[in-house]
Amino acid sequence: MLNPSLKRCLAACALLFLPSFATPFAHSQEKVPAPAKSGTPSGDKTGSLAAADEVLVQVSALTKLSVRSPLKKSLRSREEIRAYVLRRMKEDKSKEERYAAGRAAVAFGLVPKDFQMEPFLIDLLTEQIAGLYDPEGHEFYIADWIPLEEQRMVMAHEMTHALQDQHFQIDKWMKAARPNDDAELAREAFLEGSATAAMIDYMLQGMGKSLKDLPDFDPEMLLGELGDTPTLKKAPPFIKDALIFPYFGGLKFSKALLAKSGWDALAGVFEHPPVSTQQILHPELYPDGRPPEHPALKVNAKVLRGEWKQLDDNSLGEFGWKEILQQGLGKDRATALASAWSGDRYILFEEKNSRKLVLIYRVTWSDAEHASRFLGQYSEALEKKYAVRGNLFRRSNFFSFEAPDGPVALRCMDRDCVVIEGGNRVFLDDVYGQIGCSPAPELPKDWGRIPAKTAFVPLYLTFGYR
User: Is 69 helix (H, G, I), strand (E, B) or coil?
Assistant: First the structure.
């Protein structure tokens, strides 16, 4: 069982350290809320700077990463740190990239259509911030309103980033995974998880123990305390999960590596990065190093009526698919199905005038059995996603219905499943042709009179799957 003080610390730190890197799916929005008033500095500047140097030396000994150069550090007000978070968010991804990511979150049903992503994230990221390491300026920002005795655990986490940066250039290392969002999130999870592991080792060193000595535990059990923060209470489940995953998922991954080979194993991850969030979620898959499959997906937007622009072409990974499936299936069913993920790719289009979206994605599963499960379970999730629908049509490997913005179709072939949301029937068959598939099954002559809802036994149940 976790020590109560350690549990509180982990719960707090998951939010305290969020601003280390820009977060995913940040939607562009020029206007941001006014910053909160800065608190009264606790302790003198000299004491805080000296403490940072002291913690740096201790963390260096714990992680076996030598201090290669003096660390820049400074006390910063809440307003200054908030300004850094905003600047970093805008510099890390272009306005167009942030817009596209936000629209992708809407298209997949992960956030409400009118959700103002960027202002919300800025409020969330600065709600309980206690310090950060800037990998661009190679500087540690010390929050001037946090008492010195509470700063040390923050310093242990951020000093780990500083040391990793001196040895491995973490900003460059992170961006090397682009444009694959799943691979980039996997690297971020390792960075934050390993820094959290170092923080725990720092806290336990006085007891002669380390993270390796703690029993296995599910970090998600701490989410109850995290949910007590005002802004996080308002967050859609996906936002909460996406912000916390790098810390808790990365901690579980780091703990598994530490148990085998200590801190030398974690340093080795920079030479052989995790290739997907699947390896973070399942550390036993990491040594194999096998990259995810990248299913072919070709789309001709000219078939659509109107002026369409491609916003994104990317991969969600197991973490992303677990989040999507949770929307309609619940956590347990989603986790079980997502664990069979083997690769995916999605392409998103937006119509210039109406801002309608057309989403096309292809997911490869570990075997045909899990593709059949996906067909049965995800058709159920799609029905929940689209409250207004009609003309449901089902075949053994095909499911479709009509939604307000066009047809929604799910088709599985062996291990691959293709989903198209939006467009028209001609576009549907064109996508199938582009990837070498036959046209969609012929619709019945009385298709227009099929009721909006029909009883359905998922395909996987007919095979006895659980």
Answer: coil
Domains contained in the chain, number: 2
Using alpha carbons, select from 62, 56, 63, 60 the residue that is nearest to residue 268: 63
pLDDT of residue 416 exceeding 80, the answer is yes
Which structure tokens are listed for 331?
């956590």
Maximum average pLDDT range among 36-40, 75-79, 189-193: 189-193
Residues 53 and 202 in one domain: yes
**Using 50, 70 and 90 to split pLDDT, how confident is the model at 93?**
confident
Tell me what the mean pLDDT of segment 424-451 comes to.
Answer: 81
Residue 258: how many other CB atoms lie within 10 Å: 19
H/E element, 258: helix 237-261
How many CB atoms neighbour CB 260 within 10 A?
Answer: 10
Prior bond of 179 cis (ω within 30°): yes
With beta carbons less than 8 A apart as the criterion, state whether 375 and 410 touch.
yes
**Whether residue 272 is found in the same domain as residue 308:** no
Instruction: Summarize pLDDT for 214-248 with one digit per residue, the tens.
Output: 777 666 655 555 556 778 888 899 998 998 899 99
Sign for the CA dihedral angle at 113, 114, 115, 119 comes to: positive
Residue 357, H or E segment: strand 357-365
pLDDT band at residue 296 using 50, 70 and 90 as cut-offs: very high
pLDDT tens-digit map of 345-382: 999 999 999 999 999 999 999 999 999 999 999 999 99
Q: Is the Cβ–Cβ distance between 134 and 44 less than 8 Å? A: no
CA atoms of 338 and 315, how far apart (whole Å): 14
| Residue 137 belongs to domain spanning | 4-288
pTM score, whole prediction = 0.86
Question: Are 327 and 110 contacting, i.e. CB atoms less than 8 angstroms apart?
Answer: yes
CA distance from start to end of the chain: 32
Q: For position 200, what pLDDT does the model report?
A: 92
Contacts (Cβ under 8 Å, ≥6 apart) of 376: 458, 459, 460, 461
The residues with which 341 forms a beta bridge, in sequence order, are: 365
Tokens 């280390």 correspond to what residue? 20
- For 224, residues 6+ apart whose C-beta sits below 8 A from its C-beta are none
State the DSSP string of 367-378: SHHHHHHHHHHH
Rounded-to-integer distance, Cα 441 and Cα 415, Å: 19
- Write the CA distances from 29 to 14, 98, 116, 124, integer angstroms: 25, 9, 8, 15
Instruction: List pLDDT tens digits, range 9-25.
Output: 444 444 333 333 222 33
One domain, residues 257 and 305 = no
Same domain, 114 and 169: yes
Alpha-carbon distance 156 to 98, whole Å? 31
Write down which residue in 238, 254, 288 finishes a domain. 288
